[in-house]
């Protein structure tokens, strides 16, 4: 179905100008057909799922915007081997997580409340509270726009890393059709890895908890941080990724700066900590854009923001961290028609 829409109606930040054409693809056949049509006619194409990780410029998009609304979930659950679930890319991510928990399938509980669609999850390798979706993905089925054929990636071929994948590194090539997950059968969670979550659950780091309890607690923590999308909270979740820096750079940070050693010898630190200690304040505003009152990583549309307002607010935060610590924050949000 094709029509003209403003992109502010299709993104969780509620900013962005008009698109020349918007098509809602509700079947895989329609999805692939529209992609082929645009590629053959050299039409600019922007593919959106839930619109939760994108900042679109005020001039909009001079091409076709394809909204992925495909549905479907086939699954097999075995008492010993767990559950194998093949899920269409247009399915809502958090509703899928809720579904898996209702089937007593574990390992996704810490990823509760993340906005977006199933198809967007492997692109960004979404993660929270010490776990990433890459841990449970078995394969990703795609349409390869270069070779004009269906191609299935096994997890080992997806080049997963922190908030990245082959699909993010080659953004114009692969259209994700569905994702297959391998989940563990059980009512208890993976070991709790983050002190914040352990404290909220009143357990020690390393303990296991009922997956239903982990989900409800994670949703509560995300709500307190302004990281749950709602009609009253127009944001894209975390605007910046946590920086991964060298040991030498880590040693130059103040003693109380968070440090999470990585397997390759680098160190991950907290973007939120850096922002707060560089002078970025909760509630800080710039025209229609605002730093959330709840968490500095959530940049918001306070109701009347333009894309440029949000961009300038992000630039200001980035500059403060660079000046104070010499670290350049990298955006987690994808920009369309804009540059940070």
Structural commentary:
With about 350 residues, this protein is α+β, with helices and mostly antiparallel strands. The chain has three domains: about 1-70, Uridine Diphospho-n-acetylenolpyruvylglucosamine Reductase, domain 2, CATH 3.30.43; about 75-225, Uridine Diphospho-n-acetylenolpyruvylglucosamine Reductase, domain 3 (2-Layer Sandwich); about 225-335, Uridine Diphospho-n-acetylenolpyruvylglucosamine Reductase, domain 1 (Alpha-Beta Complex). It contains nine helices and 21 strands. The protein has helices at about 30-40, 95-100, 120-125, 165-170, 195-200, 210-225, 245-250, 270-275, 305-325; strands spanning about 1-5, 20-25, 45-50, 55, 60-70, 75-80, 80-90, 105, 125-130, 130, 135-145, 150-155, 175-185, 235-240, 245, 260, 265-270, 285, 290, 300, 335. Strands 6, 7, 8, 11, 12 and 13 form a six-stranded antiparallel beta sheet that branches. It has a four-stranded mixed beta sheet with strand order 1-2-5-3, with helices on one face. Strands 14-20-19-18 form a four-stranded antiparallel beta sheet, covered by helices on one side. A hairpin with a 5-residue loop joins strand 16 and strand 17 (about 265-270). The protein is globular. The two termini are about 35 Å apart. The model has no long low-confidence stretch (mean pLDDT about 90).
Can you give the helix content as a percent range? 10-25%
Q: What fold name goes in the CATH topology slot of the largest domain?
A: Uridine Diphospho-n-acetylenolpyruvylglucosamine Reductase, domain 3
The name of the CATH architecture of the largest domain is: 2-Layer Sandwich
Q: Give the terminus-to-terminus CA distance.
A: 33 Å
Mean pLDDT: 92
CATH class placement of the largest domain: Alpha Beta
